[in-house]
Amino acid sequence: QDQLMESGGGSAQAGGSLKLSCAASGYADSYYCMGWIRQAPGKEREGVATLDAGGSVRYAGSVKGRFTISKDKTQKIVFLQMSDLKPEDSAMYYCAADSPDQPVTFCGTVVRGVLYYSGLTYWGKGALVTISS
Question: How far is CA 8 from CA 43, 62, 93, in A?
């Protein structure tokens, strides 16, 4: 079974930057859709950013212009560069990917600033990001 592992979480001051990485291991050569989802204490999971195999990216309105999602050449490591961080960005950040056996039909869609996602089969255990004011 494919596994995802996040790294790079930690603490930062408001206005600062952090970079998260997610490495995928398993039989898949690549994934059609990879993304980052976060969950703050007491809140529901929130789509942050997605990136499909064609290079199309989607961002939640709350992070657009501040966060950048990208992949390395192997297509099995995905990054989330976070800049101009705010206390409200504090959350557990999860990396997720679809299954090559059941690729999603769409890699996220943004409606009124909310990034909706579905069909992501593999999830990491999360990386904690804490931003202080």
Answer: 22, 21, 10
CA neighbor of 57 nearest in space, from 38, 37, 33, 74: 33
Rg (CA), the chain: 14
Length of the chain: 133
Q: Which pair of structure tokens corresponds to residue 36?
A: 């980052």
**What does the pLDDT look like over 70-123, one tens digit per residue?**
999 888 899 999 999 999 999 999 999 998 888 888 899 999 999 999 999 999
- 31-60 pLDDT, tens per residue? 889 999 999 999 999 999 999 989 999 999
User: How many whole angstroms separate alpha carbon 18 and alpha carbon 27?
Assistant: 30
